[in-house]
Amino acid sequence: MRIGNLCALVCLFISIALPSFAGTAPRTIANIQASKGWTGYALLPPSFGICKTCKASGPQLKWSWQANVSSPSMDGHSTKSVYGTGTTQWADVLWNNHLVGDFSSQGLADANHTLVPQYHTFTYDVYFWVANASVSQAMEFDINQFTGGKSFIWGHECRIAGGHQWDIWNDVAQKWLPTGIPCNPVSGAWNHLTIQVQRTAANQLLFKSITLNGKTANVNHTEPPTATSWHGITINYQLDGARAKQPYMVYLDKLKFTMQ
């Protein structure tokens, strides 16, 4: 997701007590970058909604997703995601995977709607490699839970050409909130990213922390959910194009998602 004008001021983030939830055993889905279930979409300005007529072959935007790449790779099973050439300036490419609930790629359909509500705490853990990070406007990593008629979208955007800072998503206002937390991924090397979030006991979205290459920044910020008829848990991964429409590729490896 991208909004044309980001918030002008850094938001004030306050420390809050983190609730705990007992009785739910952790469930980890590993190597999701090599898993089935990934679907790519073009997001075009000015609305940046999903383009229903766009194809991976273009012309507005070209993109591709190739699993089980041996190099660069940490274990021989990385995935190459490509932001290709296109005719549209500022276009983005979004990949989405339905993990639990509706359209699950993991055999976790949860038809009785009893599994998804059990989970409150989520960790998105991934390694990524990009030859020249500066050509990317931004890279986005999202955790989404849809349960009880409420939509919880924990959007995290690493602005690179857009300003080297982490933003988080305010779904009610449909805008990005700058956190003041630097985001400077290393080019030509593996970057390790860990994002932790939580659905609180009061059904609020808690953005807990972001760890990039061993440096942890505590966000500790809450937002309210929005309404939905969906049911499930999904993750997103997105590449944003900069002004020059320059193509680039990012390799993902050891992508795991933990629910508790």
Number of domains: 1
Q: Helix count?
A: 0
Number of strands: 16
N-end to C-end Cα span: 26 Å
CATH class wording:
Mainly Beta
Mean pLDDT: 92
Per CATH, the architecture is Sandwich
The portion of residues forming beta strands comes to over 45%
Topology summary:
Layout: E1 27-29, E2 39-43, E3 63-69, E4 78-83, E5 92-101, E6 121-130, E7 136-147, E8 150-159, E9 165-170, E10 175-182, E11 190-199, E12 205-212, E13 215-223, E14 226-227, E15 232-241, E16 248-259
Antiparallel strand pairs: 1-16, 2-5, 3-4, 4-16, 5-15, 6-11, 6-16, 7-8, 7-15, 8-9, 8-14, 9-10, 11-12, 12-13
Structure described in brief:
The protein has strands spanning 27-29, 39-43, 63-69, 78-83, 92-101, 121-130, 136-147, 150-159, 165-170, 175-182, 190-199, 205-212, 215-223, 226-227, 232-241, 248-259. It is mainly beta and 260 residues long.
Report on this structure.
It is a single chain. The chain is an all-beta fold. The protein has a single domain, classed as Jelly Rolls (Sandwich). It is 0% helix and 49% strand. Strands 1, 3, 4, 6, 11, 12, 13 and 16 form an eight-stranded antiparallel sheet that branches. A hairpin with a 2-residue loop joins strand 7 and strand 8. The protein is globular, with a radius of gyration of 17 Å. The chain starts with 26 loop residues before the first strand and ends with a strand. Residues 3-21 have low confidence and may be disordered.
